[in-house]
Amino acid sequence: MNASKSKAAVKVPIKPVAKPAVKPAAKPVAKSAKAPMASVKPAAPSPEKARLAGDKIDIGIKERDREKIAAGLARVLADTYSLYLKTHNFHWNVVGPMFNTLHQMFEAQYDELALAVDQIAERIRALGYPAPGSYGEFSRLTAIPDTVGVPKAEEMIALLVSAHETVVRTSRAIFPAVDAASDEPTADLLTQRMQAHEKAAWMLRSLLQK
Fold first, then answer.
1. Dist. CA 165–CA 202, nearest whole Å
2. Distances from the Cα of 29 to the Cα of 32, 35, 146, angstroms
3. Tell me: the pLDDT tens digits for 85-131?
4. I need a labelling partner for 24 at 20 to 30 A (CA). Which of 16, 67, 119, 186 fits?
5. How confident is the model at residue 210 (pLDDT cuts 50, 70, 90)?
6. 25-34, 44-53, 156-165, 198-207: lowest mean pLDDT where?
7. Distance of alpha carbon 25 from its chain centroid, rounded?
8. Which residues fall within 8 angstroms of residue 103, CB to CB, at 6 or more apart?
9. Which residues of 52-77 are buried (b: 16+ CB within 10 A; e: fewer)?
10. How large is the C-alpha radius of gyration of the chain?
11. What's this model's pTM, rounded to 2 decimal places?
12. Is 69:183 a contact under the CB 8 Å cutoff?
């Protein structure tokens, strides 16, 4: 062995490397919140303006013509409703050998009349006028007289023939005003109603022939 002993390895202390100081992140500056902009709503129309806008009708028929046609249709409506009541009354109260035939015929006729009443009233409303709807108004406007008591079967038939013919005449009377105003929807309605009443009158009249 060497006399000189190997020197023990000298450990050099390693100084820890100082990490750079990390600065805390700056807090974001809060932006001042903007107040939401209030939505501006258009001003509502005044009740008077809204009423006038709702009343305005522009269907290509002058107001005075619409008024005249509506007045004529009101009479057709009154006649139709009066005939409906008369037919329904006779349906309930008819007796005699023709009971079954007349009971069923009257029922079919008043069912058809009930639909017609609604169509006529709605046409009046479409023209911009109120439809009559009370017994007092119908009594004042109709040309069909009321029936007192319970007539015999043949008299019922004759009364209904006369009533159907009355509705046809009332309908035909307003055709000149309808044609002059070029009111095709009303003309079409009146044509259908006259056809229905003329056919009903013919079928009833045939029962009276010997």
1. 10
2. 9, 18, 91
3. 999 999 999 999 999 999 999 999 999 999 999 999 999 999 999 99
4. 16
5. confident
6. 44-53
7. 70
8. 91, 94
9. eeeeeeeeebeeebbebbbebbbbbb
10. 45
11. 0.74
12. yes
C-alpha to C-alpha distance for 133 and 112, rounded to whole angstroms: 18
Q: Which among 142, 21, 10 is positioned nearest to 76, based on CA atoms?
A: 142
Cα→Cα distances 81→11, 87, 113, 172, Å: 125, 10, 8, 17
CA distance 123 to 197: 18
| Class of CATH domain 60-208 | mainly alpha
Structure tokens at 8: 């023990």
Contact, 114 vs 84, CB < 8 A? yes
Domain borders along the chain are 60-208
Could you report the per-residue pLDDT of 39-79, keeping only the tens digit for each? 555 555 454 554 444 468 899 999 999 999 999 999 999 99
CB 186 within 8 A of CB 69: yes
Residue 9 has pLDDT above 70, yes or no: no
3-state secondary structure of 46: coil
pLDDT at residue 5 in the model? 45
CA atoms within 13 A on the CB side of 24: 3
Q: Please answer whether residues 108 and 88 qualify as being in contact, where contact means their C-beta atoms are separated by less than 8 angstroms.
A: no
State the average pLDDT over residues 6-32: 51
